[in-house]
Amino acid sequence: MRIYRAFCLTLFFAPLLSAEFDVKAWKFEAPVQLPALSSPQFVRLTLPGWALANTREDLSDLRLIDASGTEISYILQKAETRTFRSTLPTSIINRGIDPGRFEQIVCDVGKRVQISNQVVLYTQTTNFVRKTDV
Q1: Terminal C-alpha separation, the chain
Q2: Are 65 and 7 a contacting pair, CB within 8 Å?
Q3: 89-103 pLDDT, tens digit each
Q4: Within-domain flag for 39
């Protein structure tokens, strides 16, 4: 149906969820491109990182509207997160120092590395006075 092609993914930032449905008050919105559908059906959408970064943690401010501006109900399915720790043997393959500015190291962690969003460094020093970027 044509209505399903005209969805507009909209992030709604209002102080209260019961606030009036005012499109002009929305800070962010983005069109959603859907595949051609022969009949109404569920469509899986992956939210871009910028959208997730600008919504409430529970995504309660997320809205879908059609081309006429009517809000459309949706089912929200969150990916399951996994947290685990592992220690990888590393070897330093390059070290660079610019005294007073920075110290940099490049480490090789081998070929069997999984994607991670966190690196923990253990050091013998506990008193740091400079910023560290990883």
Answers
A1: 48
A2: yes
A3: 788 888 888 887 778
A4: yes
Q: How many domains does the structure of the chain reveal?
A: 1
For residue 36, the enclosing domain spans 2-65
DSSP β-bridge partners for residue 117:
none
Closest CA to 101 of 68, 133, 125, 75: 133
Residue 52 included in any domain: yes
For residue 109, what is the DSSP state?
-
Average pLDDT over residues 31-53: 82
User: Would you state the pLDDT for residue 16?
Assistant: 38
Residue at 85 is within a domain: no
**Residue 64 in this model has a pLDDT that exceeds 50:** yes
The contacts found for 58-62 with CB under 8 angstroms, 24 or more apart, are 60/17, 61/11, 61/12, 61/13, 61/14, 61/17, 62/9, 62/10, 62/11, 62/12
Q: Which residues contact 68 (CB under 8 A, 6 or more apart)?
A: 3
User: What does the pLDDT read at residue 113?
Assistant: 64
pTM: predicted TM-score of the whole model, two decimal places: 0.42
